[in-house]
Structure formats: structure tokens, C-alpha cells
Amino acid sequence: MQKFSSNVVEKILEFLNPEMKKKIIVDLFNPTKLMGFLKNKYGSFVLQKIIKIMTEQERIEMKSYLASKITVTSTKEKNRLNNFLEILHS
Predict the structure, then answer these.
(1) Measured distance CA(42)–CA(86) in Å, rounded
(2) pLDDT tier at 27 (50, 70, 90 boundaries)?
(3) Largest alpha-carbon pair distance within the chain?
(4) Structure pTM?
(5) Does position 1 have pLDDT exceeding 80, yes or no?
(6) pLDDT of 76-89, one tens digit each?
(7) Which of 65-85 are b and which e, b meaning 16 or more Cβ less than 10 Å from the residue's Cβ?
């Protein structure tokens, strides 16, 4: 993901109706896609924007889901995931 495209995605996220927002969240929080976003500096901004528009219940459910589904292969990935889960929790 590049800077301009991440800005476009972040803006689009602000104007989604609840049904579309839910579809995007489910799609982007697929464990494989999520790790791709976490590895990309601009992808991380998109994930943070999604967290901001999620309801508290969606955050709780997502954190639980991700904690059980994602396995990491390196310390760097583990740190990125832990940082992301902290953001998700706050």
C-alpha cells in the first residue's frame, strides 16, 4: 500500500454505512491480510482508522478472534501484532 492509496481508503472508511463497514472489517481483518497491513507502514494507518470507526463491541470481538487465529513467525511480527492488539483494546 502506498501513501496516497492509504489516504483514499481512510477517507472512504469515514463515509461507510454500517453494513459496508462490517463487510470491510471482516475482509481486512482476515489474519493473512491483517499481517500484510501490519507489515506496511501505510497499511498500519488504515488499520488504525478502522479501529477508530469500530464500535466497542466490534473491537472486543475482533481482539478475541485475532488472538486465537494469528500465529507469528518472527519477533518483529509478534511485536507488531501486540502493538496492534493494544491499540485495538484502547
Answers:
(1) 18
(2) confident
(3) 37
(4) 0.73
(5) no
(6) 877 888 888 888 87
(7) ebeeebeeeeeeeeebbeebe
Which of these, 15, 45, 34, lies nearest to 77 by C-alpha position? 34
What H or E segment, with its residue span, contains residue 62? helix 56-69
Calpha distance 82→76 (Å, rounded): 10
Among residues 40, 47, 43, 36, the alpha carbon closest in space to that of 70 is found at 36
- C-alpha cell of 67? 488472538
3-state secondary structure of 30: coil
SS3 string of 36-58?
HHHHCHHHHHHHHHHHHHCCHHH
Domain map (residue ranges) of the chain: 3-89
Give which of 89, 76, 90 is closest to 38, Cα–Cα. 76
Cell 493473512, residue located: 32
